[in-house]
Amino acid sequence: MGFFSSKKEEAPVVSKPQEPVRPAAPKVPVSTDMVKTPTNNLSIIKDNFIVKATIEGKGSLVIGGEYEGDITIDDTLFVEKGAKFSGTVHAKNVKVSGEFIGTLYATVAEVTKSGKLNGLINANQTSLGGAVDGVVRSIDSLEITKSGAVTTKECKSKKIKVEGSVKGRVVASELLEVTSGGSIDGDIITKGIRTEQGGSIIGNIQTYDEKIHSSETALDDKVAPKADENLDIDPEIAKLIKIKPDDMKKYAKKDESEIKRIPADKK
Fold first, then answer.
1. Quick check: is 14 in a domain?
2. pLDDT by residue (tens digit) across 21-48?
3. What is the rounded average pLDDT of the residues 49-61?
4. Above 50 in pLDDT, residue 185?
């Protein structure tokens, strides 16, 4: 007579090979540049070239050497660190990391920390992180970053944010914001103002009046616009970006939080 055990045999345990531990991918620093370095349909003037010419065309252009003349392109002009440009530019974007002397028209203009600009800026959006000596007209927004040092007869925009330093007249038709460490030394005209602790303002403050200040300018004869030119709606910029001047009148949504209105008696 046979006997059968009620205990079931356990299946052998098969160990799975451990997957190798993969190191975490390194974090890629996020660029804070407004204008990215162009890569498509790109032409380059190398650092050993000195060029005097007039250029018109499609695509982007990098200046690495010295250039004197006018440029009209439908994409990006990039003036590299150590390069020098002198003339007038019409482009979709302009990024200055070298030296720029002259006048620029663009939808977006940027002067980086290593950049120097002496002249006139006409743009929709502008970021100044280098040394700027000139007049700035930026329709929608103007930012002076922490490394920015601006000396100006006039900086004018709807919204202006100052993290660096500005010496000269500042006109903000919507809002002026001075962050901690930012400073303004000069007359100020603005509809609304917001300041952080540590920000510095030295000068007279007036309330912005569109009837008075929309066409008023502090430009000298060399860069003065035509008498009928509205500084808030520059027809040259409108032509460049192919939209009607009236379309530029559309303001961004107003941020009413923490905005200090200037009493009428402070005019």
1. no
2. 555 544 444 456 778 876 678 899 988 8
3. 91
4. yes
Lowest mean pLDDT among 40-49, 83-92, 100-109, 176-185: 40-49
**Which residues on neighbouring strands pair with residue 160, listed in sequence order?**
142, 176
- Number of structural domains in the chain: 1
pTM for this entry = 0.71
Tokens of 149: 């040092």
Strands 149-162 and 260-261: unpaired
Q: Is residue 219 part of a domain?
A: yes
The residue range of the domain holding 152 is 42-225+233-242
Query: Is 102 a domain residue?
Result: yes
Q: What one-letter code names the amino acid at 26?
A: P
Answer whether 190's CB lies under 8 Å from 213's CB. no
* Helix (H), strand (E), coil (C) string for the chain: CCCCCCCCCCCCCCCCCCCCCCCCCCCCCCCCCCCCCCCCCEEEECCCCEEECCEEECCEEEECCEEECCEEECCEEEECCCCEEEEEEECCEEEECCEEEEEEEEEEEEECCCCEEEEEEEEEEEEECCEEEEEEEEEEEEEECCCCEEEEEEEEEEEEEECCEEEEEEEEEEEEEECCCCEEECCEEECEEEECCCCEEECCEEECCHHHHCCCCCCCCCCCCCCCCCCCCCHHHHHHCCCCHHHHHCCCCCCCCCCEECCHHHC
In this predicted model, what pLDDT tens digit does every residue of 157-179 receive, in sequence order? 999 999 999 999 999 999 999 99
In the block, which residue shows the tokens 């066409």?
A: 215
> What φ, ψ does residue 249 adopt, rounded to 5°?
-75, -15
Residue 94 is assigned to a structural domain of this protein = yes
Q: Which amino acid is at 129?
A: G
